[in-house]
Design a protein that fits this description.
Elements (H helix, E strand, L loop, with lengths): L17 H35 L18 E4 L5 E5 L3 E2 L9 H11 L11 H14 L9 H9 L7 H17 L2 H11 L6 E2 L1 H9 L8 H8 L14 H17 L5 H8 L17 H8 L1
Parallel strand pairs: 3-4
Antiparallel strand pairs: 1-2
Helix pairs in contact: 2-8, 2-9, 4-5, 4-6, 8-9, 9-10
């Protein structure tokens, strides 16, 4: 007879260790808490937006941009004898501006302009880090769209309430206007120092030429002014203005708008800055502006 083989009884399944059970429960509870926190955050954001959206100014007027322009008075013989306006501005379409001028402002003020939706969280964080490293304000956190909101729709007060309203309006504008329309408003409305509003008057004020004839070095000089027109004035503070111009050229190089050779040439170019003369203001400016319209 053959010896009878004993069958081995199957081993009972291993019970998960107490450690694994704790880890699993922590993951489940952690995921649940994360989802709850996210839902609460989303609800809070929507609540804040709804609260601060009350009584916001309409953005419809931006479609029909008609700023007060310079009123020129001529003598009978056709000779110009006076100019009247509270803000000296000459509106020009983007098609009459050099591409390098547009690129200079975008590179210096809002490099992600064509990507973001009016608000750039990444840009704000990056600007904060750059300013922290530099120990000074070298880059702003506001997008070009937000600067349009400041110029057209809101008061210049500094408060969290205004900043939130500004962000809401910037998002709405980005969905209402094209990027080109926003840039058109910005470049024609912005104050660039010495009584010059918009890039056309700024080009004539500083360089004695129209904006369409500006070279790269001049474009970069103008694009460096919006942060602080008085502080970076090429007339009153040429060294600061030069530093700001170099910064703009470097940003244009980093963004791929210009080559190394173009960067070096523009950075080393001497600029002939004209003598700026403030626009004469008159008590009759309201009347002449009314006649113009």
């Amino acid at each position: 007879m053959y010896p009878q083989l004993k069958r081995k009884s199957p081993k009972p399944p291993k019970q998960p260790s107490r450690y694994l059970i704790i880890i699993k429960r922590l993951l489940i509870w952690g995921s649940a808490l994360f989802i709850i926190a996210m839902l609460a955050a989303i609800g809070t954001v929507f609540g804040v937006i709804r609260h601060f959206s009350h009584d916001l100014p309409s953005i419809e007027s931006l479609k029909n941009y008609r700023p007060p322009l310079v009123t020129t008075v001529y003598a009978d013989d056709g000779r110009k004898i006076a100019e009247f306006a509270e803000e000296k501005r000459i509106v020009v379409p983007l098609s009459q501006l050099p591409k390098t001028l547009l690129q200079a402002f975008v590179a210096a003020e809002d490099s992600r302009f064509y990507i973001h939706k009016g608000i750039d969280v990444i840009g704000i964080f990056r600007a904060f880090l750059k300013n922290l490293r530099a120990g000074a304000m070298v880059q702003g956190g506001s997008t070009i769209t937000q600067q349009v909101v400041k110029s057209f729709l809101l008061t210049p007060e500094r408060s969290y309430r205004r900043k939130i309203r500004e962000a809401i309006l910037a998002y709405r504008i980005d969905n209402f206007l094209t990027k080109e329309e926003v840039l058109f408003l910005y470049l024609n409305q912005i104050y660039l120092g010495h009584g010059a509003y918009g890039v056309e008057v700024a080009a004539q004020t500083y360089f004695g030429k129209t904006a369409r004839n500006l070279n790269l070095a001049e474009c970069a000089m103008l694009a460096g002014l919006p942060q602080a027109p008085s502080r970076y004035s090429p007339v009153d503070h040429p060294f600061r203005a030069k530093e700001r111009q170099i910064y703009t050229l470097r940003r244009m190089l980093e963004e791929g708008y210009i080559t190394d050779a173009e960067h070096q040439k523009a950075a080393n170019m001497s600029l002939d800055i004209g003598n700026t003369r403030p626009l004469r203001k008159s008590k009759s400016s309201f009347y002449t502006e009314h006649v113009r319209r």
